[in-house]
């Protein structure tokens, strides 16, 4: 089989895996494709967290022994992190498939290659790292979860060419075009939760649901960061406190918030997390721990600039999505997404790693893991007054 054929079949397995988009947390999305005589004869994917090993389901669906010379493509190695080390490996060896091609290894370093080695011991020929970057990228949320036992904190920004998120007047709808905004809906469907700051909630009154053509509107958990519960002081409450999904809304506040406002929200059916205040700052590590305790494996922060800047200042942002539209404002008073750092030297710049680029209409998406410099100086004056 040529390299290009191997990649073509692995793409079939990847497309299969993506059918489980947003449905497998905290488990990984996984896809498999069995190839006989140059044709895919059966595929399988994980559609829920507790699916039995997909290798078992794949051979059950085939309903007979694979032909001699067949090859099995797996986007993820059967390993302890996906609970497939025993069942998956056994199913493959018992099936008699002689050749297994794997995309990503088990994401936990001490488990990597255990599945591949067990297959080899069982007499199966194994080839690894086919489209490894795509296969690893597919599970950026569950990989982070099994590696760190912590949710991944990701932020999204939609900016002009000069890095602005709104005009000086505050007007921001829309900077990016419809195809890029549709792609945001896809990520909203994947992440188990979305978060916004109180300012964004009051200014934009967003719905924070995933609306994809041909699919039912979907709503994950919705977090609002509101230290003093100013969003509960408004005469008319924001939509996400009153809509049909309001029991998916959690307001994250501090013990400085008024108990009357907490009661008002709880009466509406909205959940409230009261976190202890540390130096009057939003206690992100406490929030992270609380998410981990309730099994929330990822948070997609959609602004505003204060909330995401504070995540950066405290080194709590793990991943960043930047959509960039081909427009320029050229106005110093237009709003920037990230603010409040004193970056004197390029060596102090924050850099994205494992960067991926995608194009949506005229806009570009650049996304990657956030890598912090050794030294990060915060300009304390920027967010000091309110
Ligand atoms: N202006 C701007 C964005 N703004 C974001 O979209 C949110 C609206 O959410 P919803 O009401 O659920 O559609 C809003 O709160 C803000 O976070 N997003 C983008 O992709 N591109 C854009 O140009």
From TrEMBL:
| UniProt catalytic activity | 5-amino-6-(5-phospho-D-ribitylamino)uracil + NADP(+) = 5-amino-6-(5-phospho-D-ribosylamino)uracil + NADPH + H(+); 2,5-diamino-6-hydroxy-4-(5-phosphoribosylamino)-pyrimidine + H2O + H(+) = 5-amino-6-(5-phospho-D-ribosylamino)uracil + NH4(+)
Residues holding substrate: 172, 188, 208, 211, 302
Presence of keyword Methyltransferase: no
Q: Name any cofactors this protein relies on.
A: Zn(2+)
One Gene Ontology biological process = riboflavin biosynthetic process
Listed Gene3D superfamilies: Cytidine Deaminase, domain 2 (3.40.140.10), Dihydrofolate Reductase, subunit A (3.40.430.10)
Instruction: Tell me the active site.
Output: 55
Whether Oxidoreductase counts among this entry's keywords is: yes
> Pathway it acts in?
Cofactor biosynthesis; riboflavin biosynthesis; 5-amino-6-(D-ribitylamino)uracil from GTP: step 2/4; Cofactor biosynthesis; riboflavin biosynthesis; 5-amino-6-(D-ribitylamino)uracil from GTP: step 3/4
Enumerate the GO terms in the molecular function aspect: 5-amino-6-(5-phosphoribosylamino)uracil reductase activity; diaminohydroxyphosphoribosylaminopyrimidine deaminase activity; metal ion binding
Keywords in alphabetical order: Hydrolase, Metal-binding, Multifunctional enzyme, NADP, Oxidoreductase, Riboflavin biosynthesis, Zinc
Q: Which family does it belong to?
A: In the N-terminal section; belongs to the cytidine and deoxycytidylate deaminase family. In the C-terminal section; belongs to the HTP reductase family.
The name this protein carries in UniProt is: Riboflavin biosynthesis protein RibD
Native species: Pelagicoccus mobilis
